[in-house]
Design goal:
Largest sheet: 3 strands, antiparallel
Number of domains: 2
Order of helices and strands: HHHHHHHEEHEHHHHHHHHHH
Number of helices: 18
Strand order of the largest sheet: 2-1-3
Radius of gyration: 23 Å
Helix content: 55-70%
Number of strands: 3
């Protein structure tokens, strides 16, 4: 498949962000070139019949959601449509290229292995950053697009000298007093922590998002081992689990800890049953919670801020039940983002947006379950590998379902890459077995609606009880 090279290049662009490593690489149109390669490759694949035109059940919902984003933005702020629409169009492009450009087990395996490798890469950068000492970082003037950079001097915090006070060590000498400093941990590629919490670049500059993205790569290591049980793959699996666990600890992300436990739990539940599997996953997550969680006034304030943001999203849904406040317009009504992908879609896009987004997540998960339940031909040599990959994707979407309840990932590139992976899994199955079907019935859509009415009512009651309404 000619499109695969460009698709992998796009994934590298989004995860690794090589054009942000230094000023010389910043001039290279890496993302645009990879996108062009993927599109041209897909056209060649269609023309040569390597790829068939297969419509997966997520495509209509994804297209509608993007269309509705642009419509709501046009209604709320028509002057912003041209400048604000590109991110969600890029997300849709990623979904279409991945879901329709990958239709063989071999290509799909290469794709998910790439995701695993990229997840390990950014997890390694985060773990290394977390192991470094605190250092003086020069903060560029306001309006400057450059990131803070490490000037080579330590400002190591101790029990006696807290991080917020250790920055005083940076203001030594007359020249140092003319700039603003932060005391943070430096890392590869001019990365740095934020308030001591490790992070990466681009779409993973938030510690919580880094923890979620890397935790979602773990199930692929389990699938890789199941596909061929060897000592080397077992060591890779153990290394991956340990590395991501260490990085999640350093992010101090409570949501990341939950997702880490969920994706591991999906495998242990499958092997040992619900009760014992959940216990094992919970035991494995205990060290993360003990070592990496935030506590105290800062954590309490963060929880309250999230409840206030959720309250704002529900108020917007009540005020604008159909059109919402408009795509990207949530922060025009509240100082913080919603910190919840479902509520962000509700507040910005109304009920049509919430139902579309929830339906996409549901269909992705349903696709993986349908593959696991499918009656493969007995002589199909690829059936075991497909089931292993499907189990990995089910664990991924179990983590996504929980993780995006804590992050504003409605339009996030990495989420839409995983939407595309679910679509690609459907395409692989449909090409091999034309009888394979996954559909969203009216009964299921009604159940999604009732479920979200219940969740919103319960959430509202909780918000009122906490005094954040």
């Amino acid at each position: 498949m000619f499109a695969l090279l460009g698709i992998i290049g796009l994934m590298i662009s989004i995860y690794m962000r090589p054009y942000e490593w230094n000023a010389d690489l910043a001039t290279l149109p890496f993302l645009q070139v990879c996108c062009a390669l993927a599109i041209v490759g897909l056209v060649i694949d269609f023309a040569t019949r390597r790829t068939l035109l297969i419509s997966n059940p997520m495509t209509p919902w994804c297209v509608f959601l993007v269309f509705w984003c642009i419509v709501t933005l046009g209604l709320a702020a028509p002057e912003l449509v041209a400048s604000k629409s590109s991110p969600i169009i890029i997300s849709l492009t990623l979904f279409i290229l991945i879901s329709h450009g990958v239709q063989t087990v071999k290509a799909f395996t290469r794709l998910v292995v790439t995701i695993f490798a990229l997840g390990l890469f950014v997890a390694y950068v985060g773990a290394d950053q977390g192991l470094n000492n605190f250092g003086c970082h020069v903060v560029p003037p306001q309006g400057d697009t450059r990131r803070p950079f490490f000037d080579g001097r330590d400002c190591q915090a101790t029990e006696e000298l807290k991080q917020e006070d250790a920055v005083s060590l940076c203001y030594v000498g007359p020249a140092a007093k003319s700039v603003y400093y932060r005391c943070e941990k430096p890392g590869y590629f001019n990365t740095s922590s934020i308030e001591g919490r490790v992070r990466y670049l681009g779409v993973l500059t938030d510690p919580n998002e880094l923890a979620l993205a890397t935790s979602l790569a773990l199930p692929i290591a389990f699938a890789f081992f199941e596909m061929k049980r060897s000592a080397a793959r077992l060591l890779l699996l153990l290394f991956g689990v340990g590395l991501v666990a260490l990085e999640v600890v350093f992010t101090k992300s409570r949501g990341g800890q939950i997702v880490f436990a969920v994706v591991l739990g999906a495998y242990f539940v499958r092997k040992y049953g619900i009760k014992r599997g959940a216990i094992i996953a919970g035991v494995m997550a205990v060290p993360l919670i003990a070592l990496g969680g935030r506590s105290g006034d800062a954590a309490d304030q963060s929880a309250l801020d999230r409840l206030h943001a959720a309250s704002a999203a529900i108020h917007l849904l009540i005020q604008y039940p159909i059109k919402g406040a408009g795509y990207t317009q949530f922060t025009e009504h509240h100082p913080l983002t919603a910190h919840n992908a479902y509520l962000l879609s509700a507040g910005e896009l109304g009920w049509p947006g919430l139902l579309s987004f929830a339906s996409i997540v549901y269909l992705c998960a349903k696709t993986t379950v349908s593959v696991l339940r499918f009656d493969f031909d007995e002589d199909d040599p690829e059936s075991a590998n497909i089931k292993s990959l499907a189990m990995a994707m089910l664990a991924v979407f179990a983590g996504i379902g929980i993780g995006i309840f804590l992050l504003s990932w409605t339009y996030h590139f990495i989420l839409w890459i995983h939407f595309g992976l679910a679509g690609a899994l459907y395409s692989v199955m449909k090409k091999k077995y034309p009888r394979f079907q996954v559909r969203l019935s009216m009964k299921e859509l009604g159940a999604i609606l009732v479920t979200w009415i219940f969740i919103l009512v319960a959430f509202t009651a909780h918000i009122i009880r906490k005094g954040c309404w």
